[in-house]
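Exam revision sheet. Question 4 asks you to relate a sequence to its structure. Input first:
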Amino acid sequence: MKAKTGLTSYLADNSRPLSSFFYFAFIMTIFFVAAPEVFFAPKFHQAVMTTLPMIIFLVIPLVFVVTMGEIDLSFASIFGFAAWVFAGSIKYLGFDPFLGLLVGIAGGAGLGIFMGCLVVYGRISSLVASLGALFLIRGFLFVVSDSKSITIIAIREHWMYPLLVGKFYGFPMQIFWAAIFVVIAYYLYHRHVFGIHVHHVGDNPDSAAQMGVNVDLTRIFCFMYCGIGAGIAGIFSTLINFTWWPTQGFGFLLLAIAGVFVGGTPTWGGVGTIFGAVFGSGVIAYMETGIVAMGWSGLWRQFFNGLIIILALLGHRFHGNRIR
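Answer key, structure tokens:
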């Protein structure tokens, strides 16, 4: 009886990450059966792991924002802004690439703080505010760059390049940096007082304020963290491609949002999961290539991404009231 009770308790406490793992395992099983010659090849998974970290860098901070009961769409443009600061500071200002990396991340954090202040002190819906910022920042990048790209091919000679995006036994280094990012986020979300505050604000901000939680500051920090994640993703993308372009990051907008919801973080706030978000990111990353590997047209990708999101949200709603 004790073992059964312990197992039941474990399943109840971890239902969201386990459901996300189920989605991931189910999708991967289909892909392995339908295209074994592709999915049993290590090089295929190494290729997926080249872009998977970018999705993780975007999805994990979004878990904090959505848990808080907000949404941020501006990350897709902050992605491009931080990458522009990184590439431009190296090519046009002569910065050392490591200094350019720090400046780029700081730029992402700054825009994240701006977003948080816009929502908190401007009292604007986060959906509307971030949608406006999405186009505002992207428009700014088009204007200042004159729609031209920036190449930094010489960066491959810098010590930072192999450390961040080199190869380790055939696997891209960025997957290991993404793993470190996940561990830090898990600690902040599940073990640190900041994560407790995020959950309380998302569940009931008035009650959180009465408990002494600085609701406004917590919200701003979450948006700042989202900006930092987007900045890191943009810089890694630029390092991989040796190029920044004005539309960089826009393709990750819907993918990252899908990863959050498939990963077990529902829309109503107060609950979420970091490990589930990792599996959700995996589902989205493999879906992008798995459909084509099965021999289907790439036009089916958006259809199945939408189907998985709807099924995931229905699953959350099925047991969400019981958990809350």
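Marking note for examiners. The longest helix spans residues 215-241.
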